[in-house]
Amino acid sequence: MESYLFPFDNLLCMLLGISFTVWFTLLLVFIIVPAVFGVSFGIRRLYMNTLLKIFEWATLRMERGAKEKNQQLYKPYSNGIIAKEPASLEQEIQEMRRSGSGLGGAEFDMSDIFYFCRRGVESIVDDEVTKRFTAEELESWNLLTRSNYNFHHISTRLTVLWGLGVLIRYGILLPLRVTLAFTGVGLLVFLTSIIGLLPNGGMKSFLSEKVHLMCYRICVRALTAIITYHDSENKPKNGGICVANHTSPIDVIILASDGCYAMVGQVHGGLMGVIQRAMVKACPHIWFERSEVKDRHLVAKRLSDHVADKSKLPILIFPEGTCINNTSVMMFKKGSFEIGCTVYPVAIKYDPRFGEAFWNSSKFGMVNYLLHMMSSWAIVCSVWYLPPMSREEGEDAVQFANRVKAAIARKGGLADLLWDGGLKREKVKEVFKEEQQKLYSKVLVGGEED
Amino acid sequence: MGSRASSLLREEDIEEIKKETGFSHSQITRLYSRFHSLDKGENGALSREDFQRIPELAINPLGDRIINAFFPEGEDQVNFRGFMRTLAHFRPVEDNEKNKDPSAGEPLNSRNNKLLFAFRLYDLDRDDKISRDELLQVLRMMVGVNISDEQLGSIADRTIQEADTNGDMCISFSEFIKVLEKVDVEQKMSIRFLH
Predict the structure, then answer these.
(1) In this prediction, what percent of chain A has a pLDDT beyond 70?
(2) Is residue B166 less than 8 Å (CB to CB) from chain A?
(3) Which of A108, A361, B103, B134 is the most exposed place for a label (fewest CB within 10 A)?
(4) A437 vs B180: CB contact, 8 Å cut-off?
């Protein structure tokens, strides 16, 4: 029996060996080498355009299928479920009273309740905040089960295509990307540790920059991220702070593959901790111990010290403090805007058709999230570098933060909200309800005075 | 992600809800998706906490009263049918509906039913009349700490005086309707649902 297996065994080994070598060479030539030198063959764009055509075809088929069965396709409420009128409390109540009893500005009327009632029910049907903490719904299907709302309308052809997609994504793309991810991270840790042995000086910073860029570029390819950078003349410079809207941990990789930044964050254990310790050997990043994070003065001091030293890289901060689903920009925490240096705003907008980048941390853990990322088609995004801004005379940190936020929202085509991203986990503060009560009281009492 | 939500709703259910509430097919599926996204426990029903998680509702001075209106007497959970039934009160009144079959009963979004919804916001103990106490409590919810007890008391007294016709110092539903007869209830208590 064994003599029969022997030649097969040999043949199998040879085949495996050859395919491995071929695969690795392709990997090296098409992915790692361009990453090192920062060039691109344009393969990813071609891939992106082909995918778009396939998605459109898939949606048309689903619509046809639905029509045949005489049913309706579920359309996401991207235009909203209801039409709201943006009138203020005073306006609406005065209007109601005028039309009712003919006396504008009279005191309490039983119909006043209608305003609160309608507003309340409107917010139950569609509110501005809760929908920002779940992934955006797509207009057309992108052949991923996780974003399909119309299961029963899939025809056989579509199922075959979907099956093919699953094979490609999990069989080819996923292992490829995982390999690249390990390579990228491994190289980062290894090379930064080596550079850490060099004496501080120009050579060290130069090498550190090159190493960081190279490893981030490999990571970008590990996600098949197709990024378009706009207005690169506004790239952040030393001695400044770069602020951007936050959608996922990948934001860091996307920005850092195009420029060098000093990262800010909490010290973690495990793999993250290893990476953090290695990175800080090559160039100064700002890592805080858990206990230090609560101390706002300490945080502010360390940031200002870093910024004052012009030889250190610009700091990268995400003032929202939490991941938002990339349809809006939520309240910016004022801490980074109190430091008093130049702020370089950056707007990041993802295209959700190819892969949902938003990390819903209450639903998925980090590993699950990365798995989703690496088994999507691609991560497509646009990055806009906005012109630098500084705090103006007579402007306080909160107003400055809002100004920067408005600029980022405008550029990225996102909604500009005043709500705090922390509402993802916490209850809203009582003080906002008290404001509403005060406004209404003014209408009541104001009426008594005439 | 409201992704699988629409597939959990059966066509028969959608038809029934359509008949009962008057919403269109696409409106019902979208509202189901919304219901599903509010249902954090994923048990097919909403609790009071699920509603309170909406920041804009939490800062509404009458938020708790509105939430209460969704829950039938003594219950802590509201399912999708109940949710839709309550929302149906806020559908705008369309002209062609006025010519509908009279034996089908009054539609949920009639002027009368809208007024009844508002009346129930005031009527805390559900005894079909608004007492001075109840009116005071609701007023206090709306103004917070900004108006004194005496002022609020006199506002309540004045309101009851103007509305009360049978002298029982309470406002019944018919007295309530009379007070608001000139107000455009159909418009003020309607939400423009998109198709």
Answers:
(1) 89
(2) no
(3) B103
(4) no
Nearest alpha carbon to residue A71 among A151, A153, A156: A153
Give the closest-approach CA distance of B60 to chain A in angstroms: 6
Chosen from B13, B24, B27, B30 to mutate, greatest number of chain A CBs within 10 A: B30
Of A99, A100, A434, the CB nearest to B144: A434
Pick from A354, A380, A42, A373: nearest CA to A181: A373
CB within 8 Å: B62 and A113: yes
Give me A358's structure tokens: 């938003």
Comparing A72-81, B37-46, B151-160, the range with the smallest average pLDDT is A72-81
Q: What is the ipTM of this complex?
A: 0.91
Please say if the pLDDT value at position A432 is more than 50.
yes
Domains B13-89 and B108-190 share a fold: yes
**How many residues are there in chain A?**
450
Integer Cα distance of B133 and B139 in angstroms:
10
Which of the two residues, A28 and A118, has the higher pLDDT score?
A118
In the A/B pair of chains, how many CB contacts fall below 8 A? 197
- Minimal CA separation from B73 to chain A, in Å: 19
- The answer to whether the CB atoms of B117 and A117 lie below 8 A apart is yes
Give the residue, A214 or A87, on which the prediction is more confident. Answer: A214
Q: What is the mean pLDDT of residues A155-174?
A: 82
Sorted by where each begins, the domain ranges of chain B are 13-89, 108-190
Nearest Cβ partner of B194 from A82, A121, A428?
A82
* Burial tier of A248 (Cβ tally within 10 Å: 0-12, 13-18, 19+): buried
Q: Which of A81, A434, A444 sits opposite B30 (nearest CB)?
A: A81
Q: B108-190 adopts what CATH topology?
A: Recoverin; domain 1 (1.10.238)
A149 vs B176: CB contact, 8 Å cut-off? no
Q: CA torsion sign, B96 to B101 to B107 to B113?
A: positive
* A14-23, A228-237, B154-163, B175-184: least confidently modelled range: A14-23
Q: Which residues contact B189 (CB under 8 A, 6 or more apart)?
A: A114, A117, A118, B89, B90, B114, B115, B117, B118
Those residues with Cβ within 8 angstroms of residue A341's Cβ, 6 or more apart along the chain or in another chain: A239, A240, A241, A304, A307, A390
Sign of the CA dihedral running B40, B41, B43, B48: negative
Chain A contacts of B190, Cβ < 8 Å? 118
Confidence (pTM): 0.79
Residue A353 has phi, psi (to 5 degrees) of -65, -30
The pLDDT tens digits of the residues spanning A331-351 come to 998 888 888 889 999 999 998
Q: Check CB contact under 8 Å for A123 and B52.
A: no
**CATH 1.10.287.990 is held by the domain B13-89:** no
Q: Per DSSP, which regions of A219-314 are E strands?
A: 225-230, 241-244, 262-266, 286-288
Give the long-range contacts of residues A91-100, CB within 8 A, separation 24 or more. A93/A440, A93/A443, A94/A443, A96/B183, A96/B188, A99/B182, A99/B183, A99/B184, A100/B180, A100/B182, A100/B183, A100/B184
